[in-house]
């Protein structure tokens, strides 16, 4: 959950309900059931949307919002991740976490949320962060491809 209150705490029960329905990771999606983002400039909206398309295409993660930071994770899902395999410092970690939980066979469920642009503070998104996230997606996509091509015992 973003500390700047871009995520509404009133949406937490949606995540809890998804876990109660059997999801092992519940993720708040800005794009499920349409675009649900307030006060973003078009450039940022397009960048975010493209990042999701890019991540889904390369990684195969069945999510509408694979870059979302609003989530709730079960103990089982957390224990399924070998965090030593995570290498991203910034936003790429969101992608790694979703990818490794999904690859472990855990059930993911997205719930629709409304994301609101921060009223105070500044974004930590830099060119370095964007490049890291793009390279993280590429690395995860290659890992997925290698796994698909490896012979099964």
Structure, explained:
The protein has 153 residues and is an alpha/beta fold. It has one domain. Helix content is 44%, strand content 11%. A 3-stranded mixed sheet has the order 3-1-4. Strands 2-5 form a two-stranded parallel sheet. α4 (92-103) runs parallel beside α5 (127-149).
Which helices and strands appear, and what pairs or packs with what?
Elements: H1 12-20, E1 25-29, E2 37-38, H2 42-59, E3 71-73, H3 75-80, H4 92-103, E4 108-112, E5 115-116, H5 127-149
Shape call: globular
Average per-residue pLDDT, rounded, comes to 87
Helix content: 40-55%
The number of strands is 5
In what range is the share of β-strand residues? 5-15%
| Quaternary form | single chain
Neighbour order of strands in the largest sheet:
3-1-4
Number of domains: 1
Radius of gyration: 15 Å
Element-by-element helix/strand order: HEEHEHHEEH
The tally of helices reads: 5
CA-CA gap between termini:
40 Å
Characterize the largest beta sheet: strand count, sense, and whether it forms a barrel.
3 strands, mixed
> Structural class, from secondary structure content?
alpha/beta
Query: Which segments are poorly predicted (pLDDT under 50) over 5 or more consecutive residues?
Result: none
List the keywords.
three-stranded mixed sheet; 153 residues; 5 strands; two-stranded parallel ribbon; alpha/beta; single chain
In short:
This protein is α/β, with parallel strands linked by helices and 153 residues long. The protein has five helices and five strands. It has one domain (9-149).
